[in-house]
Specification:
This protein is of the alpha/beta class. The protein folds into 2 domains: 7-273, Alpha/Beta hydrolase fold, catalytic domain (Rossmann fold); 283-406, Alpha-Beta Plaits (2-Layer Sandwich). It has helices at 45-57, 80-93, 107-117, 146-158, 162-171, 177-188, 193-204, 230-239, 261-273, 296-303, 305-325, 345-359, 385-396; strands at residues 7-11, 14-21, 27-31, 59-63, 99-104, 122-128, 219-224, 243-248, 283-293, 329-334, 337-342, 366-378, 381-383, 402-406. The strands form 2 sheets. Strands 1-2-4-3-5-6-7-8 form an 8-stranded mixed sheet, sandwiched between helices. Strand 5, helix 3 and strand 6 (122-128) form a beta-alpha-beta unit. Helix 11 packs antiparallel against helix 12 (345-359). The N and C termini lie far apart (56 Å).
Length: 426
């Protein structure tokens, strides 16, 4: 297959490079670990064979993650939910309503969070060498200690590109040295040494294990049988209610770096077993936002009904403007308060801060509460204990303050076991 046209999807203020190949009846999004270059992929024989095999079975969609390949660069450390939203942007741009998502390594975290937040867009999820967490923890003994990993990343940047070639060589034992260099070349052209190190530092702090119980789509967790972290994959699969774990007797640790047939056959067989229609969803991972005007009763009495009604209308217009800007979904407006939901906490908190700043021009202050958890779905609206907690968090906030609380155990049927309160005052 010849190289394809590269297109761009707009995700927030970032342009994401993507390509579409094949004409199968099922859309499949391929997200490799670390980095790729959607155009140079076709010049490297093993990636070419992998993409060709997928495109023969599916309508294949693949993209360069933000900060890599032909996508825009990034500044700072964008939160996982922001990077996850690049999947939605690419699906929309490619005209895909629902897709199978196949992700490798660190990309598994993006795919898992996306599936939890947008189950209606995901037919099935296939995760290669996915662990849920990158570093060691008392309840996760399979990764390296964080400081050890950070030292390795420093060395990766210092010794680049030799360090990259050494890493590829360790993960592709079936390739010749020349083939390994060619495989590494695509990554080397996709990221600079500093960008590679920055990306790896972001990944080092990823832990999405608390999200896994909320992934309610069919999931296939694939691992090479001799992978040193295979038990981490079993644990991740066990945490997801509709997941299956399969160990494959293949030599490669990187999916494209070898014979694609065993992996593609396993994925295609799994997809054939999944229903074409979306599963009935009873819950979704969401962030709820509650806002209300501080001292509204006294202010209404001071201004009188007519002036107060006009002020509320202006308040509502400004609030809805910010909800639209940050892609929030309005669920209810009661008096001077709003109840909305988002697919991630960072966007919800930024929206709350923007609302607070906007309504100050009206001479009023708001309080806001944000909570992330597994929410029940009732008539396409979020409900349940997670929503009640969000309302209680908002009630604890002072004037001009946004209080946030994230549940470490995301089941809406159990109380939060850990919380973080983050205050943002003007």
């Amino acid at each position: 297959m010849d190289a394809l046209e590269t297109r761009y999807a707009r995700s927030g203020d970032v342009n994401i490079a993507y390509q579409v190949a094949g004409g199968g009846g099922v859309d499949l999004v391929w997200i490799p670990g670390f980095a790729q270059h959607v155009e140079l992929n076709w010049e490297e024989p093993y990636r070419h064979a992998w993409l060709s095999a997928l495109s023969q079975r599916f309508r294949l969609i693949t993209f360069d993650k933000r900060g890599t390949g032909l996508s825009d660069g990034i500044t700072g450390e964008p939160p996982l939910e922001v990077r996850m939203d690049d999947i939605r942007a690419v699906l929309d741009a490619a005209g895909s309503r629902r897709a199978v998502i196949v992700a490798a390594g660190d990309a598994g975290a993006l795919a898992a969070v996306f599936a939890a937040a947008h189950p209606d867009r995901v037919r099935a999820l296939a995760l290669w060498a996915f662990a849920g967490r990158e570093t060691w923890a008392p309840d996760h003994p399979w990764g390296p200690p964080r400081q050890e990993l950070l030292r390795w990343i420093d060395d990766l940047e210092r010794r680049w590109p030799q360090s990259l070639e050494d890493e590829i060589a360790s993960m592709t034992p079936g390739l010749t040295r020349e083939e390994q260099r060619g495989f590494a070349r695509v990554i080397r052209y996709s990221v600079s040494p500093g960008a590679a190190a920055a990306f790896r530092r972001i990944v080092a702090d990823i832990d999405v294990r608390h999200v896994l119980p909320t992934v309610r789509v069919p999931v296939l967790v694939l691992y090479p049988a001799r992978h040193p972290r295979i038990e981490a994959g079993r644990a991740a699969a066990d945490a997801m209610p509709f997941a299956r774990f399969v160990a494959l007797d293949v030599p490669q640790l990187v999916p494209p770096a070898g014979d694609p047939a065993p992996l593609v056959d396993a994925i295609a067989g799994f997809v054939d077993e999944t229903p074409a229609d979306a599963l009935e969803q009873e819950s979704v991972l969401a962030t709820v936002l509650f806002t209300d005007i501080v001292g509204s009763t006294a202010r209404a009495a001071e201004l009188g009904d007519r002036v107060w009604r006009d002020l509320l209308q202006r308040h509502h217009a400004l609030t809805r403007r910010e909800l639209a800007r940050f892609r929030g979904t309005e669920h209810d407006t009661a008096g001077d308060g709003f109840f909305a939901s988002f697919d991630g906490p960072a966007r919800a908190i930024r929206c709350a801060c923007a609302i607070r700043q906007s309504v100050r021009e009206l001479g009023i202050e708001i309080r806001a509460g944000v909570h992330t958890g597994e929410c029940e779905l009732l008539d396409r609206k979020v409900a349940g204990i997670a929503v009640s907690i969000g309302a209680r968090v908002a009630a604890q906030a002072d004037a001009g303050e946004c209080s946030s609380r994230r549940r470490s155990k995301t089941s809406s049927r159990a109380p939060a076991s850990r919380s973080t309160i983050a205050a943002s005052r003007g």
